[in-house]
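Please check this today:
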Amino acid sequence: MPWTKKDLLGLEKLTAEEITIILDTAKAFSQIATRSIKKVPALQGKTVVNLFFEPSTRTRVSFEVAEKRLSADIVNVNIAASSVTKGETLLDTVKNLCAYRIDAIVVRHSCAGVPHYLAENIEPSIVNAGDGMHEHPTQALLDIYTLREKFGDLKGLKVAIVGDISHSRVARSNIWGLQKLGAKVTVVGPSTLMPREIEKMGEGVEVSYDLPATLKKVDAVNMLRIQREREQQVQFPSLREYARYFGLSTKLIDQTPESLIVMHPGPINRGVELSGTVADGPRSVILQQVTNGLAVRMAVLFLVTGGTKISEE
């Protein structure tokens, strides 16, 4: 089954087969990192614009390195110095960029739906690098890739997603992606950080408010960052109390099965979502997630811009 979509906007509308195409393509691209020359001409002659309206380190750098390894020409737009600050509309700004005959735009925006809006109105491919509290598809894909790398087939795999579910685009994309591939998802967190519609996000999503009990029954746990910048009001008494009931400490992880792996999308609030010893410990695959993100984003850029065969050169 070939890839047929112009854009990558989210995982909610993708099929299991389409997600698998991305993961399989990423596996092929992961071999490039082991070469002495870590570059292929897959996007040579194509131009990719990185348009980030929100602060980002991991995602922005990951996309930029992925683009360079694919030999693309890159344009990084400084939003603070762009015409948007002068009152120009987002669509006018993007249409002016398109006038340079670019091939793809990687966009991150605080408003949900912006990538979809742009995809409907411009010809170049759009890759969603995070839109508000809606989706973060490439983060979920690299999480899923990491799980597949560790466990193989995801059917029946039990994954816990812990923390600020309500404000997390990572949680939404992970839930949709994991369920499509047959994994079973449990979301854990304070009731104040649990969206009302959570059980409608997928058949079989379980909700738990007991982290220690949940950790004894799952194969992997993905600890989400507390997103104070997205909260309209304080959702729990203190960070200390949150860490006590929903943080992953050394003491707590020692009570879990030895096969349990620990994930985090970053950046980590050490001492809140998880302790430093857990983040840096043998159960952690956090840095592997970062490494895998490069291959996943290479795959996404390659596929949306029309790539069909990876060059061996």
Summary: Strands lie at 47-52, 73-77, 104-109, 125-131, 158-162, 184-188, 206-208, 220-223, 261-263. The first strand starts at residue 47 and ends at 52.
